[in-house]
Design brief:
alpha/beta; binds pyrazine-2-carboxylic acid; globular; Rossmann fold; two-stranded antiparallel sheet; single chain; 8 strands; binds zinc ion; 22% helix; 5 helices
Length: 206
């Protein structure tokens, strides 16, 4: 493996849920392809955290809530919000983890985006940039120094999670081959530029 894991590493697996896989409401091309790799990776980490996008019906990030088209943007109190198809509605099959994802490996599952008016791409801080999920404290208390991030989508929830991990003082590696991107209006190249600027490393697992 190209990433030598340490005892003080954590693996953060972002949003490997049915709605982000082919056939889902907000399918990421090849999203299901990360599952075998993520399952393999998880065996090498003492700390494994999953994030789960977990929206109530009528969520502020849903285009349908505003009578607008998916992928339009609007201004909310906390800034510009991309509008998505309804996805990852709490308790629905679309919000469940991909059936082949080995969820028994996760010690901690962080649900996010559960407040009707606030989105959360990041597993650390909601889109208002004020409300922490508690994940940074959890990792610090577990003695974690470095996080490896994998999952969906590379240019949204993986990106925000990786950048916030860096902002919280962790060393961060994004395992690129264990991610897939949406790539909306240049979002992927902007993501790579922000990784470069923030000191988030991009590596392959295999
Ligand atoms: C995500 C858009 C909306 C993601 C979540 O997991 O990247 N993207 N909600
Ligand atoms: Zn979402």
């Amino acid at each position: 493996m190209a990433i030598e894991t340490r005892e003080t590493d954590a693996l953060i697996v972002v949003d490997v849920q049915n709605d982000f896989c082919p056939g889902g409401a907000l399918a990421v091309s090849g999203g299901d392809e990360v599952v075998p790799l993520v399952n393999e990776m998880a065996r090498h980490f003492q700390t494994v955290v999953f994030t789960q996008d977990w929206h109530p019906e009528g969520h502020a990030s849903f285009a349908s809530t505003h009578g607008l088209a998916p992928f339009d943007t609007i201004e909310l109190a906390y800034g510009t919000q991309v509008l998505w198809p309804d996805h990852c509605v709490q308790g629905t099959p679309g919000a469940a983890f991909h059936p082949a994802l080995n969820a028994t490996m996760a010690q901690m599952i962080v649900r996010k985006g559960f407040r009707a008016g606030i989105d959360s791409y990041s597993g650390f801080t909601e889109a208002d940039r004020r409300s922490p999920t508690g994940l940074a404290g959890y990792l610090r208390e577990r003695g974690v120094e470095r996080v490896v991030v994998a999952g969906l989508a590379l240019d949204f929830c993986v990106a925000w999670t990786a950048l916030d991990a860096r902002g919280a003082g962790f060393e961060v590696i994004v395992a690129e081959d264990a991610c897939r991107a949406i790539d909306l209006d240049g979002s992927l190249s902007r993501t790579f530029a922000s990784f470069e600027e923030a000191g988030v490393a991009r590596r392959r697992w295999s």
